[in-house]
Specification:
Blueprint lengths: L1 E2 L12 E2 L2 H21 L3 E2 L11 H10 L1 E4 L5 H16 L26 E4 L11 H4 L18 E6 L1 H4 L1 H7 L2 H11 L4 E10 L7 E4 L18 E6 L9 E4 L10 H8 L8 E2 L7 E5 L3 E4 L8 E9 L1 H4 L3 E3 L5 E3 L2 H21 L22 H8 L10
Parallel strand pairs: 3-4
Antiparallel strand pairs: 1-2, 4-12, 5-6, 6-7, 7-14, 8-13, 9-12, 9-14, 10-11, 10-13, 15-16
Bound molecules: 2-oxoglutaric acid.
Length: about 400
């Protein structure tokens, strides 16, 4: 274990920095207890329906009780192959360093044509957000940053941004009828998109995402409720373990703003005693309430996690709300803006139908009469999909 150096005039004791192996070893008992807790909860299984075609009441009850639910076996092997191949293709063609115009082979980098960067780079095993003011200061506690192996790169890609424009397989997954049926059951038939990113937790490199609750706009609203800031679907294309997965504190989505620093203090370390990991096989998709206290540890395990996030919000939380966008610019989510961004759902449904013509086609009610305008084609790739995430909703 190395000691982090301190400036000579500071009295604070040196903070021990564990090696990746030490960090992994220290976590073991916590990981085992967490896994036991996770598998004891009644919140996992396939997406099932009542006789009238609505999502099973037992699923919705468990989701609202715990704030998350693991849907098993949502993505079949053929689709998993497509998703994995797309993620690997995008990583192969990524800028060779942050901001580079070319990939590692000297070819034009993927995503150069878009206005928002498609890649985020970080230092291996670091915690880029904990204890900072970034993202509205919602990550109050710094996580442990284990020492990466000597041969680890200086920086690596930890996040893909705007999944639906860089991976056609992600666009098809976005149109999944069972997932969209869940979105309608949780947020209402007129649910609206939030954003789509891919978390890359590479073994020995993956960064911590410090404990936080998402949502910035409605915590003080008089009509705030357990679903106000919506949810994320987290599609696991390699599975998710207690070591590399997201942990949540069940039920905290109902509690308003939680004192995360106090939870950490009470637990005696960043390993919050009441937290539970998402334990998933490849092909499982978790629905996770954005208001839950959640986070993930530096990935000192030997297993890769790649999670495609797709977020959805209740329309009444979004309409005519003003917030700042990714570039700090103020914007209001009026009807037209929400309508334009929602076209991605319709295009995703059509892209999926073209690939899986025998599957049930989800009817997205707000755009049910506009299917002809939202066909998936090279024309809509340019007119609807390219730069779609400039219209993301930030709540
Ligand atoms: O995937 C992760 O490690 C973190 C995910 C997360 O914090 C989020 O989706 O809000």
């Amino acid at each position: 274990m190395q000691q982090q150096s301190q400036p000579a005039n500071e009295k604070a004791p040196a903070v021990p920095v564990p090696s990746a192996a030490e960090h992994h070893a220290t976590m073991q008992a916590y990981l085992a207890e967490g896994k036991h807790r996770a598998l004891s909860l009644p919140n996992r299984g396939p997406i099932t329906y009542e006789k009238d075609g609505s999502i099973a009441t037992s699923i919705l009850d468990a989701y609202w009780e715990y704030g998350f639910y693991v849907f098993t076996g949502v993505i079949g092997n053929e689709e998993l192959d497509d998703l994995r191949a797309d993620v690997d293709r995008v990583l192969e063609g990524a800028p060779r360093t942050k901001g580079a115009e070319v990939d590692r082979y000297g070819r034009p980098a993927i995503g150069r044509e878009f206005h928002r960067p498609s890649f985020s780079f970080s230092k291996p095993l670091s915690d880029p957000l904990g204890g900072t003011k970034l993202n509205h200061g919602r990550h109050p506690v710094k996580m442990q940053e284990p020492e990466p192996a000597d041969d680890a790169p200086e920086e690596f890609i930890d996040l893909l941004i705007g999944n639906l424009q860089i991976m056609d397989s992600a666009l098809r997954l976005y149109g999944h009828p069972d997932l969209l049926s869940v979105a309608a059951a949780v947020n209402g038939d007129d649910f609206v998109p939030f954003n789509e990113v891919t978390f890359l937790k590479e073994p020995g490199l993956g960064v911590s995402v410090a404990w936080h609750q998402d949502g910035t706009t409605h915590w003080e609203s008089p009509d705030w409720h357990q679903g106000t800031h919506g949810f994320n679907f987290m599609a696991q294309i390699y599975g998710s373990t207690p070591s590399n997965g997201v942990w949540v504190v069940p039920g905290t989505h109902k509690q308003g703003k939680v004192d995360i620093a106090e939870l950490v203090e009470e637990s005696g370390s960043e390993r919050i005693a009441t937290a539970t990991p998402m334990v998933c096989e490849a092909g499982d998709v978790v629905i996770s309430n954005r208001q839950l206290v959640h986070g993930s540890f530096a990935n000192t395990s030997t297993e890769r996690r790649v999670t495609l996030n797709m977020g959805f919000l209740p329309r009444r939380s979004v309409l005519n709300v003003t917030n700042v966008n990714f570039a700090g610019k103020e914007q209001t989510y009026d009807e037209e803006r929400v309508h334009e961004r929602s076209r991605m759902i319709a295009v995703g449904i059509d892209a999926r139908q073209q690939r899986y013509p025998n599957e049930r086609r989800f009817i997205y009610r707000p755009l049910a009469n506009e299917e002809h305008k939202n066909r998936w084609s090279e024309a809509t790739r340019r007119s609807v999909v390219a730069d779609y995430n400039l219209r993301d909703v930030h709540l």
